[in-house]
Amino acid sequence: MPEQLVFAMEVFLNGLMAGVLYALVALGFVLIYKASGIFNYAQGVMALFAALTLVGIMEGQVPFAHLINAMFGTEIHHFGWHVPALLAILLTMVVMVGLAWLVNTIIFKHLVNQEPIILFMATIGLAYFLEGFGDIMWGADIKKLDVGLPQGINEAIDEVTYGIFDYGFFIDNLDIVATVVAAALVFTLIIFAQYTKQGRAMRAVADDHQAALSVGISLNFIWVMVWSLAGFVALVAGIMWGTKSGVQFSLSLIALKALPVLMLGGFTSIPGAIVGGLIIGVGEKLFEFAIGPMVGGATENWFAYVLALVFLVFRPQGLFGEKIIERV
Amino acid sequence: MADVTETQDNLLEVNNIEVIYNHVILVLKGVSLNVPKGGITALLGGNGAGKTTTLKAISNLLKSERGEVTKGSILYRGERIQDLVPSDLVKKGVIQVMEGRHCFEHLTVEENLLTGAYTRGSSRGEIEADLNKVYDYFPRLKERRRSQAGYTSGGEQQMVAIGRALMSRPETILLDEPSMGLAPQLVEEIFQIVKSLNEREGATFLLAEQNTNVALRFAQYGYILESGRVVMDGPAKELRENPDVKEFYLGMSDDGRKSFRDVRSYRRRKRWLS
Lengths: 328, 274
Hints:
- The complex is a heterodimer.
- By secondary structure, chain A is mainly alpha-helical.
- Chain A has one domain.
- Chain A is 71% helix and 0% strand.
- In chain A, helix 1 packs antiparallel against helix 12 and helix 8 crosses helix 10.
- The longest helix of chain A is centred in the first third of the chain and has 34 residues.
- Chain A starts with a helix and ends in a 14-residue tail after the last helix.
- By secondary structure, chain B is of the alpha/beta class.
- Helix content of chain B is 37%, strand content 25%.
- In chain B, helix 3 packs parallel to helix 6.
- The longest helix of chain B is centred in the last third of the chain and has 18 residues.
- Chain B is globular.
- The two termini of chain B are 36 Å apart.
């Protein structure tokens, strides 16, 4: 087999793995957008906040340490204990549910029946607030996150591919874990949305708030539930990205990559978020591999957006987006 | 059922309510009405008379539209219900079928019906049984149970909306404009079903309708609203015979059908409220 093709295959696989991470962020967007029509700009920051909180809890960091020290002249930073990863993840989840409740009670409850643009602006505000809040609460330094996920080259794949192609593929164990987790997450979410009472209510709310209200579905409950789910997805995304590249504030920027993913997959489709993420991940890696050298590289920065633009022109609802049902 | 008079049990009492939207727009200016148990009561009037607002004031869907009841009281079984959220009302047995159907478009017909049972803690079997009952009343829905509600016809959507409300096992159904946008034949079909639900299930109906003719044929008692006030009420039979009702809402008069132009000028002189 020609060498170039073997390289391309490796790039393809790595693209898939990167795509999974995009998909995870996009998934959080889809959940909230589906159920409330809110495009949640803060989803990326939520992933960051979740990761910060997780590290903070695991390391036994004192929240608002800088603030407390500045105000009282103390020098406290750590409680001096370490919380096991699993317990820390659970505690972080509790924090995310609390955040969901606060966001709904303080902001979105009062914006029922407002224009989508107003809701969108509110989420921008939320994003900046949460970023600053995370900073004050846990500090701005780059943190290492290790919840015990396997990392480094997967030896088995390396050996097997070496046997076949005479060239070992470099596939990170973490990426494999991320893929499995994402697949499990999507599967669970789909089962939840399609076959449970609350999932059905969630889709009903997405279709028609007023009618949902009229049959006795509590919008507040559903919205807190959806924001909690999005918080959970953000936590998973935060763990994966944080383990990969450290918990830092640039993490919130990955949210921007989720935009083209959503345009491709459709804003309302859970499978769409996944497929969109994979296409973007594979697309940009392969494009960089094939065309990149000809144009001086760095195509990964813009490829996704151009692809999204093309989609907007030819298929605005995305690959899997719900068609707007119009009866004539 | 015989004509209903005030002496009978009133399930729902609306006493002199005022409704204001957005803190400024006064829509209802003192509406009072009684809904007797087991009856069909009609709420009649033209566009913008306040029929929908009255129903929404009762089911408390007003709040999400920035409306509120500022005066008067609404009693259900003698209990104040103004401050309850819609889900509590549904649990109490009062459910509204909104104007314009409002199906969940992307849910299948069956899923739509199941959302109606959201507030119930019943077992699967019980809900299944109720689902079959709804299919008995609306056989057409059974055929289309797997199609997305958004792709069904207007009549089928109206059936979905009513069937969905039935799934909550309601005592009182607030039915808003069921005839809207439907062919006369379908209107008749829907009203026949309402009638049999009333007779066989004992469901109480408060019915807002512009189609005065049909509504007065099926209801026992009627209220006529104009500009947010009740201008006339009485047993349906009497309303049907009332010359003003005939002229204004049924388009008939003693000396035969008038030309539309005459009716309009006559109306201008003689309105109940101006």
